[in-house]
Amino acid sequence: MVKDKILSFHLNEAFCITKNKPGKKYQFGRIFQLGRIRGNFFFVERNEFANQTDKKSIEMMLKTHAETFDGKTLDSVATDKGYYSRKNEKLMLQHGVKEIGIQRPNNIKIERVFPLSKKRQEALVDRRAGVEPLIGDAKNRSQLGRSRMKSDRTIEASGFASVLGFNLRQLIRYETGKISLGVT
What is the structure's pLDDT at 184? Predict the structure, then answer.
C-alpha cells in the first residue's frame, strides 16, 4: 500500500482490517475482543494493535479476567476456530481452565491438551454459538459495529462505551425481573 494513499474520507487515522469474511473484504476501524461471562455480560480489554488477531488475544483476555475478578479462574472457555493454537490450549491449562473448548480446524490431528467427552465438547460449541446474537446486539443496538469517529483513540473510546451500554441494559433487565440469572 502506498504510504500517503487515502483510505477513508472521514477518518484521520484509519486502520484497514481484513478478517477474510465473505462480503467484508475491507473494514476500517478497530477490532474488539469480547469475553462473555455468566449472565450474558461482556468484558473487553484494550488490544495492543487495532487489527489484533484472535489467536494473539487469548493471553490478554485471560489476564484481564483474572485482574477484573480478583484472580478467579475460569471453569470453562469456548471459542471459535480463529482462536485455535496449541500454545493457546496450553496457556488456558496454565491459567487453571478446567474445560478448554477451543474449536479446532478439521486438519488438526494432535490430541487435545485436556480431552473432554464428545457430549461436553458439543455443549461448549453450542454455548459459543449462543454468543453470536449477543455480539449482533452489541454491534447493532450498542453501535459497536460501525464507527463514526475520526481517530483511533475515539474509535476505541466509542467501543468501550458501547460495551458499557450493553452491560447496563443487561443489568437493568435483571433488576426489573425481565430475565433471571439462572445457571449457564
Answer: 47
